[in-house]
Amino acid sequence: MSENNGKVRVRFAPSPTGYLHVGGARTAIYNYFFAKAMGGTFYLRIEDTDRKRYNETALHDLLRDLKWLGLQWDEGPGCEGDCGPYFQSDRLEIYHREIKKLLDSGDAYYCFCTEERLQEVRAEQEKSHVPVTGYDRHCRNISREEAEARIAAGEKYVIRLKVPETGVTEFDDMIRGHIEYQNELLDDLVLIKRDGYPTYHFASVVDDHLMGTTHVLRGDEWISSTPKHELLYKAFGWKPPVWCHLPVILDKNGGKLSKRKGAASVGDFRDLGYLPETLVNYLALLGWNPGDDREVMTLKEMIDAFTLERINPKSAMFDEKKLQWMNGQHIHMCDDTFLAGIMKEGLTGLGIDVSAEPEARIAEIVKLLKPRAHFVQDLAQMATYFFRAPTEYDEKGKAKHFGTGSKQIATEVREGLAALTDFTTPVIEKMFYDLAAATGRKVGDMVGAVRLAVSGVTAGPGLWELFEVVGKEEVLRRIDVALPLMG
Ligand code: GLU
Q1: Per residue in 33-43, pLDDT tens?
Q2: Which helix (H) or strand (E) covers residue 412, if one does?
Q3: Position 473 in a domain
Q4: Radius of gyration for the chain, computed over Cα atoms and rounded to the nearest angstrom
Q5: Could you tell me if residue 40 is inside a domain?
Q6: Are 363 and 400 within one domain?
């Protein structure tokens, strides 16, 4: 048993059955933030007692995704602490030891009903429209001696909780407030299954207690399990943790965010090119605010500002546009060397060899492009014209910028540029303004054709900087190539 010594101990307790949904990721984020904000412990417990749904790949992906998000657990798989093992399937002895206590106190009982019998009971209840369906408590009063004799004779069984037939089970939730459930509506839930494994309810309560969990922060879909958990705590005579059920995340149509309708897992968003910093920041703000109007925040800033009180009880709407915007903001905050690495890799993938490029030039390009990138992989795509001349020009751009009069303007600009001995941003800029003054044109009308000629596209970083980085010879050459296409 772990003593929490008054310190916060929280957990993320996923079942390795599928991908890590962004809703689950947000639960992990809040647990992580809360532990860090309170100087407590964040542990990872793998709830793998449903052996039919267990999936080895899901487990591997889950650990990888949590690490990628930066939510390193203090205790859990690979970081053994005092209250392991952290895989529930390695804790069977503990559950068997604990269930014995409830059998001895009469709070739990053996049930020998077969699957067929349970189905019949269900069918009968549905036919007669009884208000409360569920197990009819057929085995509730079988004596311990009889039960043990039947087990010795080889009969299969489950172990159920003896839920009080009357009264209410009540608890407080930090987000939902005070909640009451009528006991008569609760089933005698199964605690130990026919295969000897505990159910989620039983394992979760035993572990939350033995692992010293002070607060349970989990998705709102678990709120209906909480009265069952409360009853278990009561049966054991243990103090329940503080409950905190997190509101759900909806898609933009108010439905559940699911893979069927698009990206929904952490892996999906990673593959789309989102940074982990973005995803953590965005998910954290879905349902929580730092108490002021900050939006783009670092991990440390969020942890420093985190309190459970500022979790919004209303469900939150996932907005991919906003996520995209936020990714741009985080790219802006990224270390240039990191982005340079990604850009170089992308360029190599596009067949552009940048191994001989001076680092200073690469750094210059990253600086120019990063304010315009929504995704890190955009950088390479956007950077191609710094390394090779365009082989085609944007169609709409051609119609707009290569029309009548453009050749004249581009020729004048070319002459102005050719005369420069110092091909740097301020000098290039001055040349444009001087030329505008001399010809009576607007600078804005002089840039379109030459930008398209040099880059092949109509939008990009500041033109003077772009020209400087492409270099004088190459800029002039590219304008020469495009001149015959202009009107
Ligand atoms: N294993 C449950 C899940 O998959 C955990 C629920 C809880 O946090 O109690 O989400």
Answers
A1: 999 999 999 99
A2: helix 406-418
A3: yes
A4: 32
A5: no
A6: no
Gap between the Cα atoms of 482 and 16, Å rounded: 58
Taking the C-alpha atoms of residue 177 and residue 224, their distance in angstroms, rounded to an integer, is 14
**Domain CATH number, residue 418:** 1.10.10.350
Starting at the edge strand found earlier in the chain, the sheet holding 108-111 runs 108-111, 158-161, 190-192
| Ligand 1 and 54: CB distance under 6 A | no
318 CA from centroid of ligand 1 (Å): 22
13 CB near ligand 1 (under 6 Å): yes
pLDDT in tens, 104-150: 999 999 999 999 999 999 999 999 988 778 999 999 999 999 999 99
Lowest mean pLDDT among 3-12, 43-52, 228-237, 382-391: 3-12
Same domain, 368 and 427: no
Separation between Cα atoms, residue 250 and residue 283, nearest integer Å = 12
What would the DSSP string read from start to end of 140-195?
Answer: TT--HHHHHHHHHTT---EEEE---SSSEEEEEETTTEEEEEEGGGS---EEE-TT
Asked if residue 421 belongs to a domain, the reply is yes
Q: Which domain holds residue 473?
A: 395-485
CA of 221 to the centre of ligand 1 (A): 9
**Number of compact structural domains in the chain:** 2
